[in-house]
Amino acid sequence: MKCPECDIKMKLDWKKDNSLTNFFYFCPECDLRSRISIENFLDEQLHQLLGIKAHKLEEGIKKGNIKFYHSLDIPKLQFKKSMGKMEEGTVIYLSNAIEVIRGFPKIRRTLLLSPALEKHFSDYVAIEEKMNGYNVRLACLECSADSKKDLKIIALTRGGFVCPFTTKKAQELMELTDFFNDNPNLVICGEMIGTKNPYVSHYYKEVGDLGFKVFDIRKKISNHPLTLEKKRKLLQKYEIPVVKLYGIFPVEKTSQKIKEIIKQVGEQGREGVVMKDPKMELAPLKYTSSPAHIREIEYAFNFPFDFGRPFLFSRVIREGFQAYELDDSPEEIKQRAHRLGEAIIYPMLKTIKLIAEGKTAVEDTTIKVNNLDEAEEFVRYLQAMGVNAVLVECENGEAIIRRIHQSTNDKITNYLKGGLY
Fold first, then answer.
1. Which residue in 30, 77, 158, 281 is a FRET match for 107, CA 20 to 30 A apart?
2. Do 260 and 127 share a domain, yes or no?
3. What angle do CA 235, 236, 239 make, to 5 degrees?
4. Which residues pair with 395 in a beta bridge?
5. Rg (CA), the chain
């Protein structure tokens, strides 16, 4: 809505007690205040779209499980926790049209391949590569077939935040405008990968600095995924890169095939596989390689009081079951145990020594940017997400972002001074 005095766009006043039936706006120019009441908004519109009763939505807002945000000059609701069929990370944009972009469902993990696959799948299983990057959803807002100028493409993190870096880079890496003009009600789910992305830096020979690979295409409101065949044909049509498909196999042969693939994947420094029903009627499962587990543990124990605990237990469990299923020899078990122990003690000891010398535990990440403004915008985004981050340097199209892992610094410093654990 526009201010009647200044004729500029008014902003939602987040300091007020907004609810799903009352929105408070202010003019940034003349400070005019306004309230819009939408009495039947909960019952008639959101309830129909989401299948969640009005009192449940209001309860979620009061508890903080649903948050109001102002994104792209559009009010939005963000689900911090799942509710009913709405997954965590679901966002609802309250623009001229209500846009619902569902959160990406969590993929369950199998610890033992053979019994899990035969229990979960009925006939055939597709094996796709699981890549080591960060999960984002690409979608469009205010898009219609007759008005391309209204097209806004955004990249949402798993939590439902619009990442400015990914939003820009995804559109530089791929031609997405035609796809979303033709398919405004679809969401592209993929992995941003490469050595110069701000979240997960991992080298892929075919990608290098930065790349994107699609693993799913889903419908906005229902979150129903397209079948493997439809997905791959659609992506091929628009020349959008897709993750590797190792093949489709009878369920009784899939376990052995994955054992062969996962060994190769581990030797190549890659992450793992995702097992899918080709018709996408059943939920997918994932399975990762031992080297991937070790890399993640080693990373986490560089900053043990920020990441260590949640990283350690689940990956140790995976190692134990994998050693059992692959029937490791005594020597292979010994090597696995050594890798696991070294991934814990070496990085942690290095950090303790670093802080004992009066230095700080930090993580420097290099990202590709077009200018200084782009780098500063991303740092502001990280800070808004609660990350202690600063811009160290920006030149020649690259920015160095430094993250300070405060918990690790504070706790190790305390223990070095005699503090009790």
1. 77
2. yes
3. 85
4. 398
5. 24
Q: Are 336 and 290 in contact (CB under 8 A)?
A: yes
Q: Which domain holds residue 312?
A: 291-356
The tokens for 368 are 């590709």
Give domain status of residue 396, yes or no.
yes
Same domain (yes/no): 60, 95: yes
- The terminus-to-terminus CA distance of the chain in angstroms comes to 55
Give the torsion through C-alpha atoms of 53, 56, 58, 60, to 10 deg: -140
pTM: 0.86
Tokens 């892992």 label which residue?
Answer: 405
Asked if residues 369 and 398 have their Cβ atoms less than 8 Å apart, the reply is: yes
Residue 8 confidence (pLDDT) = 58
pLDDT bucket at 310, cuts 50 / 70 / 90: confident
Residues 189, 375: Cα–Cα separation, whole Å: 25
The pLDDT score that the predictor gives to residue 147 is 46
Strands 186-193 and 22-26: unpaired
Beta pairing partners, 152: 141
Q: Which amino acid is at 178?
A: D
Mean pLDDT of 148-163: 85
Tell me the C-alpha distance between 47 and 307, whole Å. Answer: 38
Eight-class DSSP state of 384: H
Structure tokens at 284: 């997918």
Give the residue carrying structure tokens 């994947």.
Answer: 265
Is it the case that residue 21 has pLDDT exceeding 60? no
What tokens appear for 356 in the block? 């004992």
The letter for the amino acid at 97 is A
Residue written as tokens 């782009």?
374
Alpha helices (runs of H) in 283-357, residue ranges in sequence order: 290-300, 309-325, 330-356
Same domain, 140 and 235: yes
Q: Assess if residue 376 is contained within a domain.
A: yes
Question: Within this chain, do residues 142 and 223 fall inside the same structural domain, yes or no?
Answer: yes
**3-class DSSP state of 210:** coil
**Residue 420 is assigned to a structural domain of this protein:** no
Same domain, 123 and 265: yes
Q: Are 164 and 381 in contact (CB under 8 A)?
A: yes
Contact status, residue 199 vs residue 155, Cβ threshold 8 Å: no
Kindly give, in sequence order, each residue whose CB lies less than 8 Å from that of residue 195, ignoring residues fewer than 6 positions away.
201, 202, 203, 208, 209, 210, 366
Count of structural domains, the chain: 5
